[in-house]
Amino acid sequence: MALLELRNVIRRFGDFTAVDNVSLSIETGEFFTLLGPSGCGKTTLLRLIAGFDTPDSGQILLDGEDIASTPPEKRSIHTVFQSYALFPHMTVTDNVAFPLKMSKVAPAEIRKRVEKALEEVQLSKFAHRFPHELSGGQKQRVAFARGLINRPRLLLMDEPLGALDAKLREDMQRELINLQKEVGITFIFVTHSQDEALALSQRIAVMNVGKIEQIGEPSTIYSAPANRFIADFIGKINLMEAGVTHISGEDMTLEIDGLGTITLPLKPAVQPGDRGVIAIRPEQVKVYALAERTEVPHAYTGKVLDFLYVGDVTTYVIELDNGVRMEALLANSAPGRARFFEVDDPVIVSWPQEAAQFLPDQP
Questions:
Q1: Which residues does residue 307 pair with via DSSP β-bridges, in sequence order?
Q2: N or C, fewer C-beta in 10 Å, the chain?
């Protein structure tokens, strides 16, 4: 039985449906992420799980018991917010101990558990400091320790790393993964950051306008997006308009607008005449100097329109002869000054057949 199960959950605000008939299940010990753009309903869904809001219909089952009408303090669930929500007049120790004091735990037991919690988040030497004496990352770790002190069945995190700078956020991501493995508590993480979701999660639910578009492991969400929205939202991708012209056995022939035909494995329910996009990740695109004239499949000529060098990789924008633009991500793995091509260099771009996916337009 799943630890948490949502069945046909709906939440409306007037005429606006923030959560639209959502069903999902989350297993014990899982690091599960709700990912989507601002306004997609992910925070509303988290508030429904926490008990800060009540669904208009549907069930929220924790260990098989419907808790949809159970008040937050009666649920074995804690929430960590982006703002940390620490008490400024309390020391780190007192902030972490607060939930135990509210539960009337014995003082000796509180001391023992707080010491252990601060060890888990590497804050033992900061026990007597106040929040204003801590860095952003330290405040965030105090918030995690307080959320974990009662060993809840679920720890909910609403954009908890959003206020941190890029380097500290990356460090905290590693700490979160290790912490979750160590304590074994189920984490439900809300973020709009695709990179963060891919790095942290065991499974991701991608949300859009109140609905779940796809649930899966990060590698599946990235490499096999269910539709155009997910392909475009998760990472960088080349999308080229195409239509199905012919189906033969287990293959389908498509006409890419302005580029010609391509044959791909047949997708379920696809029919001749269907329109959609060919999706190819930039790291799958190969770029060759025009002089190489390499015999490669799906080869098209063009020129370098622009590039962005960011140290470990360079992203090239290639304009093909027919005006279609593609991005290619090339690793700067060679020693010395890494530069493959210059602006206006004539090039050939290609990709392996298995790198291309057809995503039909949704009705």
A1: 316
A2: C
